[in-house]
Amino acid sequence: MSPHPPTDIMTLRYKRHRFPAEIIAHAVWLYFRFPLSLRHVEDILAERGIEVSFQTVAEWAAKFGRGYARSVQRRSRGSFADKWHLDEMVVAIKGKKFWLWRAVDADGYVLDALIQSRRNKKAALKLMRKLLKGQGITPRVMITDKLRSYDAAKREIMPGVEHRSHKGLNNRAENSHLAVRRRERGMIRFKSARQCQRFVSIHGPIANLFNLHRKHLIAADHRDIRAATMAVWRQIALSTAA
């Protein structure tokens, strides 16, 4: 597919929007790629002479971000490592405690995330079913902390998968929570479980696309991979159906 989609595709996708596709895609990229608030994105665009309100940026993020994320997921399906790390983090929403269940692979790529009101076997099963449906394969190894709900759910849905349950082995998943925590602080906490789920469902795939593992690359290789990644992003943002 050409990185520059035909004009008619772009016209249909961004029909009835006052701003061109490139500006909308750039605003959404800024919001999900970096730990910026909606007002930060508004200011960055204003500095470039683009007058758009933070409310409009929020609407773009919700409307187009989902399509971008789904396109990234389709491209990456089946390409993740076969060692899965599962963990859950507490999210306080309007005084009520929720758990954000998340799974990453051995390289730190986000496999999926699901916010739930319970921290039990039923919740663990729901996450695992979502993972199996989304990835299309079962893992070779599953690593979790010592929460017994994981083992109970795993024995029911993936009995043949090796399960390692030890808090010290699961640093990969626990460290991956930091990006969500930074965004949670920037947003002054999530306003609802639905908003949280919508955000993490978009943020995870986009974060994966730009997870370049820079420390293992020389500068020239990093620049080449970054340029290729940006070309993929432009292709996705300007050609994926909304």
Specify the number of helices. Answer: 9
Using only C-alpha atoms, the radius of gyration works out to: 19 Å
Report the mean per-residue pLDDT as an integer. Answer: 89
Number of strands: 5
Number of domains: 2
Q: What is the beta-strand fraction?
A: 5-15%
Query: How many angstroms does the end-to-end distance come to?
Result: 17 Å
| Biggest beta sheet attributes | 5 strands, mixed
The helix-strand sequence is HHHHEEEHEHEHHH
Structure description:
- The chain is an alpha/beta fold and 242 residues long.
- The chain folds into two domains: 7-76 and 212-239, no CATH class; 83-200, Nucleotidyltransferase, domain 5 (2-Layer Sandwich).
- It contains nine helices and five strands.
- It has helices at 7-13, 21-33, 38-47, 54-76, 121-135, 148-157, 171-186, 193-209, 219-239; strands spanning 83-93, 96-105, 110-116, 141-144, 162-165.
- A five-stranded mixed sheet has the order 3-2-1-4-5, with helices on both faces.
- Helix 6 links the parallel strand 4 and strand 5.
- Helix 4 crosses helix 8 (193-209) and helix 5 packs across helix 6.
- The two termini are 17 Å apart.
Task: Write a compact overview of the structure shown.
The protein is an alpha/beta fold and 242 residues long.
Keywords:
globular, alpha/beta, Nucleotidyltransferase, domain 5, disordered N terminus, 2 domains, 5 strands, 242 residues
